[in-house]
Write a structure and sequence with these properties.
This protein is α+β, with helices and mostly antiparallel strands and 296 residues long. The protein has 13 helices and 9 strands. A 7-stranded mixed beta sheet has the order 7-6-3-4-5-9-8. Strands 1-2 form a two-stranded antiparallel sheet. β4, α7 and β5 form a beta-alpha-beta unit. It is globular.
Length: 296
């Protein structure tokens, strides 16, 4: 790969972080870079780029765009501290997820997972249910969160520390749709912080988080510097739990009833993607927005 091409991708990656008001470390840039390069090579190229390209500056291991919209190291470190606090709160709420027998995986996404949360932010989570149980899993989850006053609703004005379950997959369909396999989605999967992962969604010897990554190996095509070793360690991050009882035919019937109820009360939003096995509740398609700005 030529130095010019690497410089172009380097500036684009730093600009990507800047779009989200974030200043990356060199290692974060390396992980997000869509070009195969060693960390040593990247550090060397950054030193060359700092001399050749006036739009970049380095400070305390962070790489900035000059003029970076008022972003500074102090604000980034404060957001990291806030994100760590919110992640601890999410771990403390894991009992709500564990008592739901239809859920096989829960992970934190969004600004908290990216270490870029503000005090006023909610906590976004991604949920995978057991096969043919997504709708009943969601109904139970929303009820439990509402009971503990932790559910974020569309009418909330103060969403601080509330849980927003904006991505749901049924265990029969955990592959990201082809149209949504983008650099943005790959980076979001890389940032995913697992809270709980039960076993047996496809194989009894494999927890759901491992299965999800295995099924979505395409992320490595977008992020060639990433390996399984860069992903969260399951032995100290994930609550590994055995597969609970799924209640057989009664569970299937309950899921169908829950689907009928929820589909009737859902208000369609143009950017949302809703099928019988996947629910993507996002008001904006970030992949399209970033592509239009030339950042992916």
């Amino acid at each position: 790969m030529s130095s010019e091409r690497l410089l172009t991708q380097l500036v684009k990656t730093v600009s990507y972080f800047s779009f989200f008001s974030y200043v990356p470390t060199i290692e974060e840039i390396w992980q997000f870079l869509p070009e195969k390069v060693t960390l040593h090579q990247l550090r060397r190229e950054i030193n060359v780029a700092l001399k050749k390209y006036g739009g970049l500056r380095k400070e305390k291991g962070y790489l900035f765009l000059r003029g970076g919209g008022g972003i500074d190291i102090g604000s980034i470190e404060r957001r990291k501290a806030i994100s760590e606090k919110k992640l601890r709160q999410a771990h403390n709420m894991s009992f709500i997820f564990r008592i739901n027998p239809f859920i096989s995986f829960v992970g934190v996404t969004g600004s908290v997972a990216a270490n870029n949360a503000k005090e006023c932010d909610d906590i976004d989570v991604f949920v995978i249910s057991y096969p043919h149980r997504m709708w009943i899993a969601r109904l139970v989850m929303m009820s439990l969160l509402a009971l503990w006053r932790k559910r974020r609703t569309p009418s909330d004005t103060d969403v601080r520390d509330k849980v927003c379950c904006n991505l749901w997959f049924d265990g029969t369909d955990i592959s990201i749709p082809a149209a949504r396999r983008t650099l943005f989605t790959a980076r979001e999967i890389l940032l995913l912080k697992p809270l709980m992962s039960r076993q047996g969604i496809q194989r009894n010897d494999e927890d759901t988080y491992t299965t999800f990554i295995r099924v979505n190996k395409w992320i490595y095509d977008f992020l060639p510097n990433i390996t399984d070793a860069n992903l969260p360690r399951k032995d100290n991050v994930i609550k590994k739990l055995q597969r609970p009882q799924q209640y057989g035919v009664l569970g299937l019937l309950a899921n169908e009833l829950a689907k009928m109820i929820q589909k009737k009360i859902m208000r369609p939003v143009s950017k949302e993607y809703i099928t019988d096995t996947q629910l993507w509740f996002f008001p904006r398609d970030m992949s399209v927005l970033l592509r239009n700005k030339g950042l992916v």
